[in-house]
## 1
Amino acid sequence: MLELARGLSTRALRALAELEMRTIAADGGRLKLEWGVLNARSGRDIEDLLWWDGDRLLGFLGLYAFGPATVELAGMVDPAARGRGVATALLDAALPICRDRGYRKALLVSPGGSTAGRSLALARGADLDHSEHALVLLGAPTDGPTAGVLLRTATRADATEVARLLTAAFGWTPSDVVDRLASDSERTLLIELAGAAVGTVRLTREQETAGVYGFAVDPAWQGRGIGRDALRRVCTRLRDEGARRICLEVAVDNERALGLYTSVGFAQVSTEDYYALPQG
């Protein structure tokens, strides 16, 4: 039975965690579920689709919106229930929701090399948009030279500066920067040097796992060790706060960033493919 969920109950979250464990035990690697996001669902809109067989959860597909433009769809099917059309049914139900909300781009996330994920995407006429490595830091960051940067929590008053830094580094800015700065489930830091804002990073936290997102250094300040120093400080702060697992993602073709992350101690754990689904 299909459930279109507005927020996830304690029962659903528990069943979802059990499904994740069964899936990883069978397939290895990791799943892009964003537990911090799942635990903080507002309950206003349908953002998660669940396929139940009685009390047993057999399939899940979550919608992860990035402003009004892009939505990512990521989930899993119980290894014992594959081949029954569960993934197809979940995607059939999700795509009209994405269209009705006006997302210009819908990306289906699949573990790299997954034959089933690739087949599901291609059956929908999707094209591979990009791939990302998932990296994790399990210990202390490596030692190295410092650039003298300072970290401070950004507030809504810093929205213009955060947007400027993201645009300079990535060529675009999320439309919900102000909402992110006001969120209770994540925080954004400004990276400052000699009184100037030279970078930014967004952090999430779910129990002992922390996530690093939108890590950006103004191109005008790059090449001075600022990014490496800032990332070491961020990781040290997260570990001091109780995080024992720090995760981030990087595009497979971004060799410069990958080199930075591995130099600080991050190790690759998986690769994920992002397929752009037709919106018609």
## 2
Amino acid sequence: MKHTMLLCFVFLFGVGLSAQEKAPKVSLDTLDYHEFPGVYHNAFKAGEYLRFRLAYGLVDAGEAELTIHSSPKKYKGREAYHIVGKGRTLGAFNWFYKVDDTYETYLDKKGTFPWEFVRDIREGGYTKFQNYKFHQDRAAVSTHKGDTFGTLAFAQDMLSSFYFARTLDFTNVRVGDVFTIPTFVDEENYPLKIKFIGRETLKTRTGKYRCLKFVPVLQEGRVFEDEDDMTVWITDDANKIPVLAKAKVLVGSIKMELAEYKNLRNPMAKVD
């Protein structure tokens, strides 16, 4: 179960890790300014709460929660959401591999890009802490280690990419269309990609939904052997919430399913 909750959040994003490159170290004084984009959407709001269950086979092994708060912090005079993601193991899994992960992002309300990212994870004997400060007007990020790296323009972090993906317009999507999200992860630049493969009505533990179906476009041999080994279903509505993700990983199979939701901005695409 090593890095189980990292996989959880990969599922929540609905994306996989494609080809990556080491981010170059830079000096802020040498970088050009970028105008902030506006990303207009009706996908989420402060107060939204999502809870997912992670299963191995028929057994619930873990849980992930995502909550959106209004942040009192402002970045360059701009308002932000404070989004908190928590992942943990359940029941007997705590005895042999306890997971207790926290992810936080401060997401620009108008531009849907991150200003700050915190990752504090404990998975068995493995721990990791990260604190990134994004300089979005310079396409750069400073880490808690004191280094500054050049990023792709308006790069997302591990958590914010999930919310940015929900702002994408799938109104006229066609089978085979690929969407790319620039992301900065572990001092590397990732163009995260998802490919649309169709529509489907799906029955889950929280109901029956009209869904859009995606697979990640990723580098073979990293987590999944083939891009078709992972599939994500998101609601075919304005919320665009993942209701189910299934994957074959190198150590077996895993499933992430929506278990609870509150305070959504829009009605869900449920089918009676």
## 3
Amino acid sequence: MTTEQHVTEELSVGPARVRVDYHGTEPRAHILEDLDFFNYRLADVRISSDPSLAQPDIVWNRDAETSVSYDGHTMTFNGEWAPGPLQKAGVAMLALRLEEHGLHPFHSSAVRYRDRTVLFLGGESNHGKSMGQIEACRRGALLVSTETTVVDETARAVMGSKTVFIKKRAQGTERADKAAPDRAVEIFFGAMPTWEEYTEPSTVDVVVVPSIDGNYEPSLAEMISFEKQFQTLHSVQNYFLLNELLAPGWAMPILDTSALRRARAQFVTKFSERPFFMVRAATPQVLMDQLDKVL
């Protein structure tokens, strides 16, 4: 007779905690395999086999018929699932728990440049936040974050990921449409530069929505209120995966509520009071030349 195994682990980032429970006859040493994707998408995610939470946030019943659902607190996976969808769900649940503590993950990079904290926002198009960050660091900026910047209710960047590119995507999340990131670095910079990190919390002073395309004429425009909020909402909503498939035939369950969306929009309104610039350029170097004009 095959014995069902029960494994419990807890993920944490800052004050956020997410408990993950596994039930199944397939033996597993760990539920989510590794933390590469978590640390790329968030910042300094830890895993513990000694959970502090009494109730699971994610449950995986491996031997059941395939399905995925969310009841307002717990996301339940039934059946066989590849590592990728489970990891993406874990990131989304951690982002939800961060919001409960007044912390908002932004799909963005950030640097400390000329005594200001500059956020490169991955908004609607997401074309240039990594290249802008790398070029800023080439010019002496200190690194605040790469893929994700976690911002508190007072608009301070309080933590952030430090991995510029993810080298290997987990099974079930592979993307043929994503160009090799090292190739872009080779084209624009020759080799990846080195930099130092800025580790103190700091208020975001300036937001840049970069758009890099080899066909663009250089341009810099200060954005109006609606544009600021539109692009910011794209960035913070990115973590809830509401426009994504977890796996063929299975959309991400809806984690949002009207109350959460209203609170998020109110935060976006306050955050968008600072200067925002849309910068178009053919290269990261030209992008920073444009930005230097207003910094």
## 4
Amino acid sequence: MSDCPNSSLPEFAFIGRSNVGKSSLINMICNRNKLANTSNKPGKTRLLNYFVINEAWHLVDMPGYGYAKVSKKDRKDWLKFSQTYFKKRKNLVLAFVLIDSRHKLQQVDLDFMIWLNENFVPFTIIFTKTDKLGKAALQKTLTNFNSQLSEYWEILPHSIISSSVDKRGRDEILDFISKSAIQFKTLHK
């Protein structure tokens, strides 16, 4: 944690299972092709990567959770470090939890969101890779996902549908960040 920037800028963390499309989403949000490295091999992000966006906020690219070809010790260390970050980072405004829209709700995603909720870490879900599904299939996935979440939340977490291929969700994500950053700055004057 001592290596994290000493800054008053609000932070927005992006995290999800390995191979969920996090780097592609970050590149799409920032309108840059190679800002975050993309790879077919899960588990390439191993540190917290900070990007200063428009001198107004930090985008924090976090290591993925779940499957990755790394040792159990590394996976455990990443989890511990991530939990410490979420509990102690004062500038953190929100975690964006990325979910691959092509798959049903995974237990590891549910466990992570429950942990965030129990530790009072605000989060928003971003469904990725939605361009790979037709309208009906996407709607069915979202309905099933929300049905499962409603067993744990009376009011469902906010969610955004995205695609790094057709830039779906980009404006909504940036608008949400902009409004949240303004609220953060107002509260921390």
